[in-house]
Design goal:
The structure holds two protein chains of two kinds.
Chain A: H1 7-14, H2 23-26, H3 41-48, H4 53-78, H5 82-90, H6 93-105, H7 113-137, H8 142-165, H9 177-180, H10 188-207, H11 209-217, H12 219-224, H13 229-268, H14 274-298, H15 304-322, H16 328-356, H17 364-370, E1 373-374, H18 375-381, H19 386-398, E2 402-404, E3 409-412, H20 414-437, H21 442-452, H22 458-468
Antiparallel strand pairs in A: 1-3, 2-3
Helix pairs in contact in A: 3-14, 4-10, 4-13, 4-14, 5-7, 5-8, 5-13, 6-7, 6-8, 7-8, 7-13, 10-13, 13-14, 13-15, 14-15, 16-20, 20-21, 20-22
Chain B: E1 36-45, E2 48-58, E3 63-67, H1 74-81, E4 89-94, H2 99-102, E5 106-109, H3 123-129, H4 132-135, H5 143-155, H6 171-183, E6 189-192, H7 201-216, E7 220-225, H8 231-234, E8 237-242, E9 244-250, H9 251-254, H10 257-264, H11 270-284
Parallel strand pairs in B: 3-7, 3-8, 5-6, 6-7
Antiparallel strand pairs in B: 1-2, 1-4, 8-9
Classes of the chains: A mainly alpha, B alpha/beta.
Amino acid sequence: MTTVCWLGFAVDARGAEPGLEASVSRQGGGLTDRSNAWPTAAQWRRVVLLEDYNTRVVVGGTLLLGVAAGVIGSFTLLRKRALMGDALSHAMLPGIGLTFMLSVAAGGTGKSLWLLLLGATVSGLLGLGVILLVRNLTRLKEDAALGIVLSVFFGAGVAILGVVQRMGQGHSAGLESFIYGKTASMIASDAVRIAVVAALVLVVCTAFFKEFKLLCFDADYAASQGWPTVVLDVVMMGLVVMVTVIGLQAVGLILIIALLIIPPAAARFWTERLGMMALLAAVMGAAACAVGAAASALFPNLPSGAMIVLVGAALFLLSLLFGVRRGIVIRWLRRRELSRKVRQQHLLRAAYELREDDAVVPNLETALASKPIPTRELLRMRSWSPRELRRELRRAARAGHVVVDASDRVCLTADGYALAARVVRNHRLWELYLITHADIAPSHVDRDADAIEHVLGAGMIHTLELLLAEDRAPAAVPASPHLIGGAPIPQPK
Amino acid sequence: MLTESAIPAATRPGAVPQPSVTVETEGRDHSPDSPLSIHDMTVAYHRKPVLWDVDLDVPPGKLVGIVGPNGAGKSTLIKAVMDLIPRTSGRVRIFGEPYRKQRHRVGYVPQRESVDWDFPVSALDVVTMGRYGRIGWFKPVLRRHREIARHALERVGIADLAHRQISQLSGGQQQRTFLARALVQEADLYLMDEPFAAVDAATEKAIVRLLQDLRSAGKTCLVVHHDLQTVSEYFDHLILLNMRVVAHGPTAEVFTHENLHKTYGGRLTLLSEAAEALGREARRT
C-alpha cells in the first residue's frame, strides 16, 4: 500500500484504474469492486469489528471529522451562518484546480495533498472575502452574496478541472474526489490531520464557550459590552474553514455542509441547552461519519460522502420525530393530552351547569345525583357531535366521573361532582377576573375563559382567589356572569 | 475618528468635579458628571442620514424618555452612542469619557425582537450574560455569578422561571429577562430600547417600578418609548426626536402640543425632505 500518494493518485502507483481503490480491494478481499453483490459475512465482520487497519483509519478519521463538524456547526447554525460553510467549501474548488495546474507547470506532480489543501484554503477564504465585499459594498443581502460566490467559484472550479483533464497528465481524475469525497483513500496521516483539527476545535470551543454563546445569541449586546465580535467571528469562521478543508477528502465539498448543519439541527430536538446541543451534535456527527464510512467500505461503489449524509439524515429524521424536547411525537402527545383534558372539563362543566338552576333541594350534589341528565340535553350545551359526546362520556365513565344508565341518561358520581365544581369554579374565577381586572366585556368573556382556564396552575388560581376575595366567599362557586347553555352568547364583531 | 486635544475641563457651576477625570474637549465643554453628552452627532446609513446634528446632555439620576415617530432614529441614537453603529461625525461622552473607556458603566436593553428567542439557553443563562464582561475572557461562569443573576430575576419578579428555555417565556417575561440582564451589569447609565413594547399591563407596572428604583439609586435611564399617553407619567426628562432633536428638557416643559406637532406633525419635516433629496442624489451617482 502506498503511503505518499493519495486518492486517485494512489491508483497510479498501483497501476490500476482510477475509481477502484476502495478499501475492500486494498485489503485484497478478492471481490471485484464494480459488483453490487451483498458483502459476505466475513466482510461484514471485518468492517464492523474494525479488523483491518485501513478500515480503522478510515472510520476513526471520519468519526473525528464528525465530532469537529458537529461542535463548530452548532455554533455557526445558531449564529445563522450555516450556509457560509457551503459557500466556503464550494469556493475551494478553483483553488484545488489551480494549485494542481501550477504545481504541474512548476515541474511537480501535483500530488502533494498539503499543497492542494492549502490552495483550497486560500481560494475558500477568497470566496468568503468576496461575500463580505459584495454584502458591504452593494445593497445585496447576504443570501444573494452567498449564492453568487458559491456558484461562480464552483463554476470556475469545474472549468479549471476541465482544463486540467486535458493537460494530459492522466492522473488528474483524483481531483474529482474532492467534489464527492472518498474516504477509502484516507491514510493514517490524513486521520492524524483530522485528529489535530478536531482537538483544536474542541479546545477553542471549550475556551470560548461563553463568548461564542453570547456572540451567537446577541452580537450587538456582546459588542456593547466590549467583546470584539469581529475577532470572535473570525475565530469561529477560521474553525469552519479548517473543518471544511479536512472534510473535503472524506465527504467532498458539496456535502461537507451536511456535517456542519444536520447533526446540530438534529441535536436541537433533544435539548434546550447549548452545551448539550454541541455535545449531542458531536455524537451524532461521529455516528453518521463512522457508519457512513463503514457502509462505504462494505459497498465500495457507494460514495462515502453520500453515505455519511444519508446516515446523518436518518438520525435527523429520528430526532425530528422522537426528540424529547421538540420532536413531533412529543409535541403531538402533549397537545392530545391537553385537548383531552379540555374536552373532559367541558363535559363536566356542561353537566354541572345544566342542573345548577334546579338545585332547590337540598343541594346541588343531590340534585345532580337524583336527576340524571338525558344525553340530548348535554348535546345542546356545546357544539359537539353525538359521536364526540359519546366518546367523551365513555372516557369520563372510565375515569369514574359519570355513570351512564340504560336509558342513556348521565349522572355525575361524587368524584365527578367534585371535579366539575372545581372546573366550573376556575372557569368563573377567570371570567370574573377578565371582567373586573382586564376590562373585557362580559359578552366576550366566555370564549377567552374557555381558552385559558384549562391551563391555569394552582398558583394562578390562588392569585385569582386573592384578587377576587373581597367579592365572595373563596371556596364557593361564583355565579356565572353570563347566560348559560341555550342562550346564545353574543359574538364579538 | 476625530483628533482630540486634551484640555482640562472647565467644570460647570454647581457640578461636582471628579478630580481624576480629564475631559477631552473640542471647543465645547463636556461636563464629567453628565452620564451622556452627545455633541453634533450625525449618523448615516448608505449615505442617507438618519440622525442630524444631535446635541444634548443627559442630566444624571433622571428617567429620560426618547420619543419620536417610526424611523426617527431612536434606536440608532442608542446604538451610535455605544459605537454599535459608526458615527459620520460628532462625539459622544459617557461620564466625560469615550464609550470604550466607560462601557462597564453602561447597561443595555436591546429591542426584544432583536434576538432569536428559540436559542437553546434558559432565562438564567441570558441574565448571566450581563455578567460576562466582569467574568472576563475564558473564565467559566461560576455559582456566584448565577446567584447574582438569580437575584436580578427575583428583582424583576420571574425567579421561578429561571430554568425555562427562553422561547417558553411570554413577551413580558422575555422583556423582564432582558432587564435583569442589564441589572446584573450594575451600570450607572442604562440605555433601553422600547422596553415597554408589547408587554402586558403587569410587566409594564413592574418595569416602571424598576425604573423608579434605579432612579432612587442614582442611576440614569434613557428609555426609547412609544406610548405618548404615559410619557409625562413615566419620565422626568424628554428627548423629542425626529432625525434631529426637536426638543429636550424636563418633561413638563418639553411635552407640549407644539413640540409634538413638530416631532410627529406633517408626514415629512423639512429635514427628512432634504434627506430624501440627498438619498435620491446618492442613488443616481
